[in-house]
Amino acid sequence: MSDLPNDPSTGVDPLDLDDDWIPDLEPEPAIDAPRQPLVRQVDPSSPIMMVETAFLASASSLIWLVNSYFPMGPVLQVFFPVPIAMVYLRWGNRAAWMGALVSGLLLSVLVGPPRSIQFVIPFGLLGVLLGVLWYRRVRWAVSIPISALLSVFGDFFRLWLGSILLGEDLWLYGTVQVTNLLEWIFTRLGLLLQPSLEVIQLFAFLIIVLRSVVYVSMVHLVAWYLFDRLKTPIPRPPRWVQVLFDND
């Protein structure tokens, strides 16, 4: 029998303990713990912040410019507000507004002020708004309707601005197209109905709202997939979306 241990409370000599026996006292992080956005607290005049903000702002405006001359449908459109939102998550509110302003100024030089305004409203503002919502960890069920409202406002603003620049009522042109669509639907269904002006305008408004909801939902999905890989995660989508895309 060996000598009694020096520590009567444990029954083991502390000098004879193996280092592997000592438990790890630091708790393991929870798998589902919410991840916080990466916002760096630095001097606003930091060259890193200025360079990254300018790069992301120019990327956003150039994506919009390329899509204007080589339209690719919704493929590039979902990326319009994403760089500005990235600026907010990485550098904060002031940098995001600076990025939106720089994007507008760059497009103003390249294609003129009217076209640049059509980018800033709504895509520049939408990028800042999404950055605010994602930084505050707002759920998708709330952030999507809020951002969709801004997108709807932007669509009507562009209709109004385009009508002024072209000298034609683009809303009236839209209602004519919707009228033709409704008449085609009624004909296919065998209904002898003539839609009223109020029904046509309501249907046109609902189309704009539906388009905005689908658009901002796609922006959320793209940002969720992209920002996770850039180590700047946004709030998690609903569970069924995670299961559907299996991104975790």
TrEMBL record:
Parts forming coiled coils: none
Annotated signal sequence range: none
Organism superkingdom: Bacteria
Transmembrane feature ranges: 48-66, 96-113, 119-135, 142-161, 199-227
InterPro entries given in the database record: DUF2232
Record keywords, A-Z: Membrane, Transmembrane, Transmembrane helix
Protein name, per record: DUF2232 domain-containing protein
